[in-house]
User: Fold Methyltransferase from Apostasia shenzhenica.
Amino acid sequence: MAGARFGRTSKPRSPLSFCVKVSLVFFLGLSFVVVWSMFFSPSSSISSRRDSYVDEIETDRSAPARTSSSHATRTHSDASLTPPLAMVDSRASRSEIGSSANKEERVEQKKEGEEKKKKHREVEGNSSDMDKPEEVENEKKDAEGEGQADAENEEIDTDFEDGVDVKMEENSEGEGDGFDENGGISDKKKRRKTKKLGPLFDPKARYEWKLCGGRNKQSYVPCIDMEGTGGRRHHERSCPHGPVTCLVPLPKGYKAPMPWPESKFKILYRNVAHPKLSAFLKTKKWMNVSGEYLIFPSEESELKGGVQHYLDSIEEMVPDIEWGKTIRVILDIGCSDASLTASLLDRDVITLSLGLMNDQIDLAQVVLERGMLAVVGNLGTRRLPFPSGVFDAVHCSACKIHWHSNGGRLLLEMNRILRPGGYFMLSTVQGDAESEEGISALTASICWNVLAHKTDEISELGVKIYQRPASNDIYELRRKNEPPFCKDAENQDYSWYTPLKACLHKLPAAIEERGTDWPEEWPKRLDTFPEWLGDLQAKIIADNEHWKAIISRSYLIGMGIDWSKIRNIMDMKAIYGGFAAGLQSQKVWVMNVVPVHAPNTLPIIFERGLVGIYHDWCEPFSTYPRSYDLLHADHLFSRLKNRCKQPIVIVVEMDRILRPGGWVIIRDKLEILNPLENIFKTMHWDITLTFSKEKEGIMCVQKTMWRPQT
Assistant:
């Protein structure tokens, strides 16, 4: 009964409990809706989101360096992979990872800091305007004009310009060369857009310089010397896989080089000394040691009978060869005593000596120390880094090169770089009948004319002078099409890492093509422009006037440079040769370097009777340490932002090829110059002049004798 009663009394309570629960849930839901509508209105939420979006845009405009926390972490992680040279301060990266409140506070602090820096630069620029001479001020106006032009072209990827950046065997960036089979820019490369990158130099980087190691570390030439192999060299140019960030030490007892023209006859032996050179000196009379000097007696030469007799005999053999008039630019294969280079220099002939990579005596370094032109290269499987049809003559004395081997590729390369109607002067030791027969057959097959052949009784050399054809008509007389003609679409100027081919290039035929006419006699050649230049003539004239004004008003008198100690100069980003032409009154020579990614203006430089070479500044240059007295870089760094993975290697290379006491003049954007100044200070260079106006500036620095402690 009790159980029944309990059951009856409990049944009516079940529906009541369920209703209470439903009511409670409804009441709580209604309360949540009321509270949410009071504190989180839709209009407030939309307004908040819009305000945050506008703030983000304004922050990006005023402080482009701002990054998200995840991006900052990734940057720090990548920095840890850089070489020991550039030690990045990790505290800055870690401090960017924090709460959102701290992040907003940092952005505001960054804005204030940038405003202070901007005001400081304005004040500094105003004070500089009052202190600088009028010449430098006028020069800066020119820089301002160039800066505006650069600003307009800032979005242009320089890789797309009509340059000579062709690496048919390899590509340092790990991508294709971007050219189609006809030599044009591929559609894939045309579609690629320029990426906006950060600053060229990491402002947070700390530089701890170290000396290069190895057996011949004081004469280290990257891309030529093998690393850690005791002085062995590559057969072809082959650069290290990683960036070269070490500084080359000075030879023991190194001193400032002898000034020109005294260096023509003697140099400081310790500046170039090494064991193989010492052994070589014991067998030669034209170069001997006297005290601390290496002497080059004017009456002695590698050529028996003297170099003057040798040059006079060539003029007698071919009267059309007028040194310093019709013949101005010569390539001399191999370096010996440089007596030929020195003698031709007295006759207004500029001779570029090609020191071969297998020369363990490093005679090219001796040539450079004497104040004459030389580069290091190789006659192997690749083209030389020169345009086609630019040398008035190619010379090879006492040659031991097998020109006819491997399908005659080496002689065909000489045919490529020789001007139409140019001369190939070959002197050989008598006795190698097989080589003579092979060369004779090859030169006949490419229609070279033998102008003269003479065995000189005094020098005991057999001298042959060949001439490249000046037109294509003679090729029709060939009985066999061997070697075959190269494809018409192939660009003869492409020579950066381009393999040699056993084919013959046809000559230009139309009047508007380069090479149809021989240039004017020197020195009219410097300022006389052929018809094939077309509209470029006006640009070249303007470039001439531009650099002439800058050099006379600023470089020669406003930089504090002692030009009596300047001989070897490099223009690291030459265009039309205006900088070199403006220095013709000085006792200097200028190596005009046209970057491989820039417009192909090197043929114009040669046409004017000047000399130059192609190069990619993401790699070391083919020369010995301490080769140059002055380096000139006009907007070089700002054009390399999209190319070089480690731009600091350019600064390291400048340190390698510049002599202690040498100078560097840099014209570029302030965003480049400001970190560069700090980098030079870490290398203990003297900053002798800095000048800026708006976003452009100029800096002149001098290298010191400082080297890192071992």
